[in-house]
Amino acid sequence: MRRRSRLALSLVTLAVVAGLATGCSLKQSSSSESTSGAAASSAASDVDVPSLKGKTVGVAAKDVVRDFGRLTYQGVQDRLEELGAKVVATQADAQDDKHLANVENLVSQKVDAIVVILGDATTLAPALQQAKDADIPVFTIDHASENSVNNIGSDNWQIGSTLARTLAEDIGGKGKVLVFNGFYDVTPCQIRYDEFKLVLKNYPNIEIIEPELQDIYEGTIEDAKQKTNDALTRYPKGEISAVWSCWDLPAIGASQAIDAAGRDEIKVYGVDAEPGALDLIQDPDSVYQFTVAQQPTLFGTTSANNVALYLGGKQDEVPLSTYLDAVFIDKANVADERKRLGLE
């Protein structure tokens, strides 16, 4: 019971460290009051936590292709090493089976703790159960699991609802939406999609085009571009109002196809603030409208701090869930936010 009650305290602490967003309206964040990503990460590194000297910590990332995965992966390693831990790091090249095998291998090595970054919930469940059975605490990043001691992520309920409400308002509460929904088993995408559907209950004149498009992990942009081109052929001008994706890469491909076709009546929305997405949002002639910046380095740093607290006998100070600030970016603020967050 004490552990759960620490969640409120943890959120207050993170508000100081990361500038947790509260009371944000559509297309408005607390970014003007929050610190930059680099400054927040530096502040998290200054948090007083126990040493990890003599401990071995495994890190298992699904991939390091996207900026989010790469920066989170590096951030957690840097902080673990700074705290004195020996780090055994693996990444799975976006392959679910390899990700599973990497976690199982870390369990067999009897490491003191494991940090898992992203992954398919169904695929990883057996390995995380193995870790729990072996009394190896698991810390997850954007991968909620009943076998995780702590999961770190952005507030994906807020991200999902804000993304959905922004899209709905931008298209005037009516029209057809092309949806990429290939990764519903990935927790952040699941939450964002569920929030999207929930918001649309209040916009009865918005219709999702069926079947939904299935985005893929490798060759994402080109695949999404082709699928969008196919949709543009099936639905002539005026029959598609927007494109929704739970992450930026499919939205980048969709925007490229729509821009090239001159279909400027369609608006595109994504999440993650990938450089390619920000470039398109900053282009006044592109249909890409909106994305969400997270704080991947801070994700990694904070997860490492939680490992140190837990292994250092301060388990009561580690909440089940830790939420970090997200920044909403559109055409009006993209230049300023890129500069402030170091995303140029």
Mind explaining what this structure looks like?
With 344 residues, the chain is α/β, with parallel strands linked by helices. Helices cover 46% and strands 16% of the residues. The protein has twelve helices and twelve strands. It has helices spanning 2-18, 37-45, 67-82, 96-108, 121-133, 156-170, 187-200, 220-234, 248-261, 275-282, 296-311, 334-341; strands at 56-61, 86-91, 113-117, 138-141, 150-154, 175-180, 206-208, 242-245, 267-269, 288-293, 321-324, 327-330. It has a six-stranded parallel β-sheet, sandwiched between helices. Strand 1 (56-61), helix 3 (67-82) and strand 2 form a beta-alpha-beta unit. Helix 3 runs parallel beside helix 11 (296-311), helix 6 (156-170) packs across helix 7 and helix 8 (220-234) crosses helix 9. The longest helix has 17 residues, at 2-18. It is elongated and about 65 Å long. The protein starts with a helix and ends with a helix. The model is unreliable at 1-34 (pLDDT under 50). Residues 57-315 form the Periplasmic binding protein domain. It is found in: Cell envelope. Keywords: Signal.
Order of helices and strands: HHEHEHEHEEHEHEHEHEHEHEEH
Mean pLDDT: 89
Q: Per the principal axes of the C-alpha atoms, what is the gross shape?
A: elongated
Number of strands: 12
Subcellular location: Cell envelope
InterPro entries: Peripla_BP_I, SBP_2_dom
Signal peptide: 1-23
Pfam families: Peripla_BP_4
